[in-house]
Design goal:
The complex is a heterotrimer of chains A (106), B (627) and C (168). By secondary structure, chain A is an all-alpha fold. Chain A has three helices and no strands. Chain A has a domain of 65 residues. In chain A, 73% of the residues lie in helices and 0% in strands. By secondary structure, chain C is mostly helical. Chain C starts with a helix and ends in a 6-residue tail after the last helix. The chains are: A mainly alpha (106), B mainly alpha (627), C mainly alpha (168).
């Protein structure tokens, strides 16, 4: 039986964060990349709430709320960006968006 | 006499020079200004300075020890204070008077010589600028201020040698003079800096230096003395830096008379006399200077014997006479050297002006073997030239005799017999080549008949005045053996060196020897050239005519050598080594950039991965470090 | 009791997250992510954060994910739009290996944190909405107002970005 202790919450948070990073780097689908970022934010929120309880301080929860607000605004911007990008190239592949790549050689 | 006027001696020619320059520009660009305006302004400046000089001279005579005027502090850096200062003591006022007097004469002469020239205003602007620089050199109260004048006269010399700059030969001559002088000036600067380094903190005017120069260790002092003398070698055209002076004759003849005979070239002698407190401490350097002077005198005299260009002969004789002056100052007889400077200025200026008159009369012919028989055509020039030639040949009672004889006496009494013999021999040679010039120019037979141009009074008057000067200038330094009072020695008492006892009989016999030496030279010249046959085809060649190939040797060693070195450095060192290193570094960076640039793939995921790898390796480091 | 609930919820959260990054169909991934979000909401409740529990459900599950599903459908994304990712598992493995030191470091850091007692709060009504509001409007007023401005900016920005541009 695993104790529902402080460390188990933290471990869960770290694991979720790592899964978020794995998704971010190894997938090419823009939507999945976006969701990976959201997942990482959630993992951090979980950590903040855990620490809030650990230190008996409300500050952690408030920061978590702020993070949610930022995540919401990010969602708005990111999704409108995806719409604009999809209109431009009709592709969800992140590797297709390389307009800043250097063309030719020196 | 208010010492403020010391500055005006320098300022009047300077301001006049500026005005003349601006007026000349106005004249050639907008509206013609008549020549007499230029003449008036140009002649006013040296004469005003001369009057001021005489007033100061009277002041000194009446008992003032010296005049010092320091208008403002020029530099003040970290305890080193250089003030713009003027010093009017017996030496500098003496120089001022004769420079301004000769300058005035030559200005008058030049107003006739340059008549109708397109650059009339420009010429006098440079001339006045030269006067200002020379007077600043003479009246400066510290070596640094002197150096301003020193460079200023060099600049004016350059400007005036290449005055007719449309002829490339003149430009080359000007460049040569400037560059050779630069070598000398470099030595002068090194000497000044070394001196400044040792005693500059204690004040850098002549009085402070005189007081503290003994604090400098003797080897360093020797170095300073030699370095300063290198500057004098350049300016006063001594071996080995004499080569510019003959070429400097490319300039107009008044320039040769004023700058390259009477005044500027004596700056080196003046400088040595000015630093007499320094050279008194290092007599070995003095002897070295005397030997350089003696060999310069001999060498130049030998070359002069085979030259055909009237101005070149005079140029070599200038080098030769400057050598005499350096013999005197090197042996500690500064007043004797300055006496020769004084008399030489008269007769050499006169010689040049006479030569200029001949050249003008013959419409710019300078080869003496194309002259001949001018005695009847320009008798005034004949008489004045004869005076000057006798003076330079050391025939009493003309001025050159007294000063030259005193120098030989000094050498004899210092037991430098080699110098004495060289001096005596050179005196013979001098008499020979001067009378060769004189006879070929004015006598001879079977010369082609030439039309002679008219000479203006402004050219004749200075000739006459200076002829009197050349005749009688020697009497101010009449030796005591004639029962007279040596005015030069008593005026420049601080510079006259140790008094050497000499028997009257001995002195008189030495005088007779040198007179005989001069007469021998004249005799040989008379035999060879008095009835010179101009119809003979002459062909002069040989080592001496070609000036011992010194110019060619310098050209080969320094100019060509430098050229080769430059080519070597540019091709081998620069292209082969430095450029290769630089280019390989830059191409290395380009290649590196190309490789690193591939990382900039615009692939966002790759960037994220790089970041992750970075953080990960840092974490790994922390884990290993902290355990 | 709580332990069991925690175990179940964390299992759901992990499964949802792993599913989210594994599925190749975008729609499936989004649905899988909802599971994670809901499980996290439950975990907030376990951690005495009742307000955050509600906010998580309303904002994440109710707004963000729904909006995303809406966009997916709006853009009419089908299977062929999704990029081909033949070696995504190998990529995941590599990233996982690289991540190991970071995770280990984080874990170690929390393990070594100063211990301040057991994991139960003594404060009565800890985490209820009254306390949160009190703290928010007394201690965090300026960040709160800043966040509102940020939301406004995001609103305007998203409109500008998604607007159809007129071709010149």
């Amino acid at each position: 039986m695993i104790e529902a202790s402080f460390m188990s919450y933290i471990s869960l948070s770290i694991l979720l964060f790592s899964i978020g990073i794995i998704g971010l780097i190894s997938r090419k689908n823009i939507f999945i990349i976006y969701m990976s970022i959201e997942l990482m934010l959630n993992a951090i929120n979980l950590m903040l709430v855990t620490l809030s309880k650990y230190f008996s301080s409300m500050d952690g929860q408030i920061i978590a709320m702020m993070v949610m607000a930022i995540a919401a605004s990010e969602a708005a911007v990111f999704l409108s960006l995806i719409v604009a990008m999809f209109r431009l190239k009709h592709s969800l592949n992140i590797d297709d968006y390389n307009a800043l790549k250097q063309k030719g050689t020196l | 006499m208010n010492s403020h006027f010391l500055a005006w001696i320098v300022l009047i020619p300077l301001i006049s020079s500026l005005f003349l320059g601006l007026m000349h520009l106005y004249s050639i660009k907008i509206r013609k200004i008549p020549d007499f305006v230029f003449t008036t302004l140009a002649l006013f400046a040296p004469m005003a300075s001369f009057v001021l000089g005489v007033l100061f001279c009277i002041g000194l005579y009446e008992g003032a020890s010296e005049y010092i005027y320091e208008p403002y502090t020029w530099l003040k850096v970290n305890g080193y204070i250089i003030s713009m200062g003027f010093l009017g003591d017996r030496l500098s006022i003496f120089m001022t008077i004769f420079v301004t007097f000769i300058g005035s004469m030559i200005h008058i002469y030049a107003s006739g010589y340059m008549k109708g020239d397109g650059g009339y205003g420009k010429f006098f602007s440079y001339f006045n600028l030269f006067m200002a620089s020379m007077l600043l050199l003479v009246l400066a109260n510290s070596p640094l201020i002197m150096f301003i004048g020193w460079e200023g006269v060099g600049l004016c010399s350059y400007l005036l040698i290449s005055f007719y700059f449309t002829d490339p030969l003149n430009v080359v001559a000007g460049n040569k003079a400037f560059i050779v002088n630069r070598i000398g000036d470099f030595g002068f600067i090194i000497g000044l800096v070394t001196m400044f380094f040792y005693v500059g903190k204690l004040g850098f005017d002549y009085y402070a230096l005189e007081e503290y120069v003994s604090l400098v260790p003797i080897p360093v002092l020797t170095f300073i003395g030699v370095a300063l003398f290198v500057g004098a070698m350049g300016k006063s055209a001594q071996i080995p830096l004499y080569v510019w002076l003959p070429d400097a004759m490319a300039g107009p003849t008044p320039v040769s008379a004023l700058i390259h005979a009477a005044t500027m070239v004596t700056a080196g002698v003046y400088m040595v006399a000015r630093f007499h407190f320094l050279y008194d401490l290092i007599p070995d350097v003095g002897v070295f200077i005397a030997y350089i002077g003696a060999f310069s005198a001999l060498f130049a005299a030998i070359i002069a014997m085979r030259q055909t260009d009237i101005k070149k002969i005079l140029a070599y004789s200038t080098i030769s006479q400057l050598g005499y002056m350096f013999i005197a100052v090197g042996l500690g007889g500064y007043s004797t050297g300055l006496f020769h400077v004084f008399t030489h200025a008269f007769f050499k200026a006169l010689l040049f002006m006479g030569a200029g008159a001949v050249i003008i009369a013959l419409h710019h012919e300078q080869n003496i073997f194309k002259m001949g028989g001018l005695r009847k055509k320009i008798p005034l020039v004949y008489i004045t030239m004869l005076t000057a030639t006798l003076a330079i040949s050391g025939i009493p009672p003309f001025s050159g005799f007294f000063s030259k004889d005193e120098i030989l006496l000094k050498a004899y009494l210092h037991q430098e017999y080699l110098i004495y013999i060289i001096g005596l021999f050179t005196a013979t040679l001098t008499a020979y080549y001067m009378f060769r010039l004189f006879f070929v120019t004015f006598e001879g037979k079977n010369y082609s008949d030439k039309k002679v141009g008219e000479l203006s009074w402004s050219m004749k008057a200075p000739l006459v005045i200076l002829a009197f000067g050349a005749t009688f200038a020697g009497f101010v330094g009449l030796p005591e053996v004639f029962g007279a009072h040596n005015l030069i020695d008593s005026w420049l008492e601080a510079w006259s060196g140790p008094a050497l006892h000499v028997e009257h009989v001995q002195e008189i016999s030495l005088m007779l020897i040198s007179v005989v030496a001069g007469l021998i030279g004249i005799g040989i010249a008379y035999v060879k050239f008095y009835k010179y046959d101009f119809s003979k085809e002459i062909k002069i060649s040989g080592v001496v005519y070609n000036k011992f190939y010194i110019d060619e040797a310098y050209d080969y060693v320094f100019v060509k050598g430098l050229q080769k070195l430059s080519v070597f450095i540019s091709v081998v060192v620069d292209d082969g080594i430095i450029d290769k290193i630089v280019m390989s570094i830059s191409s290395g960076f380009i290649n590196l950039g190309r490789r690193v640039g591939r990382m900039q793939s615009a692939n966002t995921r790759a960037y994220a991965f790089f970041m992750l790898v970075g953080i990960s390796s840092f974490s790994l480091y922390l884990i290993l470090k902290l355990g | 009791m709580i332990n069991v609930i925690f175990l179940i919820l964390s299992l759901f959260a992990l499964m949802g997250a792993i599913g989210m990054i594994m599925f190749s169909n975008t729609m499936h991934s989004a649905l899988s992510f909802i599971v994670t979000v809901m499980a996290l909401a439950g975990l907030y409740a376990l951690l005495n954060a009742s307000f955050l529990f509600m906010v998580q459900i309303i904002i994440y599950a109710g707004a963000i994910i729904t909006l995303m599903l809406f966009i997916i459908m709006f853009l009419n994304i089908r299977e062929e739009h999704a990029p081909k990712e033949p070696n995504k598992y190998i990529n995941m493995l590599v990233v996982a290996i690289v991540l190991t030191p970071i995770d280990y470091l984080l874990f170690e850091a929390f393990l070594r944190m100063p211990h301040i007692g057991d994991f139960t709060t003594k404060i009565k009504n800890f985490g209820d909405i009254k306390m949160l509001g009190d703290k928010l409007f007394r201690g965090w007023l300026l960040p709160f107002e800043t966040i509102s401005i940020l939301l406004l900016v995001a609103l305007i920005g998203s409109i500008v970005l998604a607007r159809k541009r007129e071709r010149k």
